[in-house]
Specification:
This protein has 298 residues and is α/β, with parallel strands linked by helices. Helix content is 29%, strand content 26%. The chain contains 9 helices and 15 strands. Strands 7-6-5-8-9-15-12 form a 7-stranded mixed β-sheet. A 4-stranded mixed β-sheet has the order 1-2-3-4. The chain is globular, with a radius of gyration of 19 Å. The two termini are 31 Å apart. Keywords: Transferase, tRNA processing. This is tRNA 5-methoxyuridine(34)/uridine 5-oxyacetic acid(34) synthase CmoB.
């Protein structure tokens, strides 16, 4: 199947009555706004009527769950599950995106790409097959009117993509893949010469070349296959022929960064940990920690 055929199939999923109604509603909202891209991505509407404010709130609520953010639209605060600026601020000192072609793999609703706009990249492309997160992006971007491209594609489509990238972000994806080395090779295939990948993953904080393979779930998440030690992650990257494995940071995932809010209608980190020992998941595995790395294409 070609990329365009895949795109056409995914676009049909956006044509459900629910999403079609949202898109029609957005077309009627010709609202001017200014934006700021601090920890909270803020859309500041001038002379927003009570009626339009209510419509914005109704659309936002209909698009729950909101995982990445937060966002503010005038008085409407979308308090997302993740305080995503914590991750972005870890990476920020290492970013040089000016005039670069940049991809965000597993971009969710585009929060990180919106945060990248002040860094003046030449082009921003997000990849994520999630239909609801694509609609969240369309909702925010309808008013920001950026040139960000949102592709309803996954990392497996990168080798077929029309062009390559100078910088790729792949944040919180690799442990969802049953073949992590294959995924790293797909990332490498999509890089320009001397391109770089910023990657983060949960890791097991012990010495050795090991990866945890959860029996059913890890932290109540079913689609997690391998959680490596840092040494094992480095070995994966070397097998994929990456160079210059650089550890940027490590961090425990805590209730400041990930927590239940009214914008997700479900469980979050506090429900995923052992109530008697917060250093363990509910399954008895080590509690989530993350490592942030940069790797290069030779």
């Amino acid at each position: 199947m070609t990329l365009n055929e895949i795109r056409n199939l995914k676009q049909k999923e956006l044509s459900t009555p629910k999403f079609a109604k949202i898109l029609d509603c957005l077309d009627t909202l010709n609202l001017d706004c200014t934006a700021s891209f601090d920890d909270v991505v803020c859309l500041n509407f001038k002379d927003l009527s009570d009626e339009n404010a209510k419509i914005l709130e109704q659309i936002a609520l209909s698009l729950k769950p909101w995982r990445k953010g937060p966002f503010r639209l005038n008085e409407l605060f979308i308090d997302t599950e993740w305080q995503s600026f914590i991750k972005f601020n870890i990476l920020k000192p290492h970013l040089n995106l000016k005039d670069k072609v940049v991809a965000d793999i597993g971009c969710n609703n585009g929060y990180y790409m919106f945060k990248m706009l002040p860094f003046a990249p030449k082009k921003l492309v997000g990849f994520d097959p999630g239909i609801n997160t694509a609609m969240q992006f369309k909702f925010i971007n309808h008013f920001l009117k950026t040139n960000i491209i949102y592709e309803l594609l996954g990392v497996e489509h990168l080798p077929l993509y029309e062009h390559k990238f100078d910088t790729i972000f792949c944040l919180g994806v690799i442990y969802h893949r049953s073949d992590p080395v294959k995924m790293l090779k797909e990332l490498k295939s999509a890089l320009n010469p001397h391109g770089e990948v910023f990657l983060d993953t949960m890791y097991i904080d012990i010495n050795g070349d090991f990866a945890l393979t959860p029996k059913n779930t890890y932290s109540k998440i079913p689609n997690i296959y391998f959680i490596p030690t840092i040494n094992a992650l480095k070995n994966w990257c070397e097998r994929a022929k990456f160079k210059d494995f650089e550890i940027l940071a490590t961090k425990d995932t805590d209730l400041t960064e990930q927590r239940k809010t009214a914008w997700i209608d479900g469980q979050s980190l506090g429900d995923f940990l052992d109530p008697n020992d917060k250093n363990k998941t509910i399954e008895g595995y080590p509690a989530p920690k993350r490592v942030y790395i940069r790797i290069k294409n030779g």
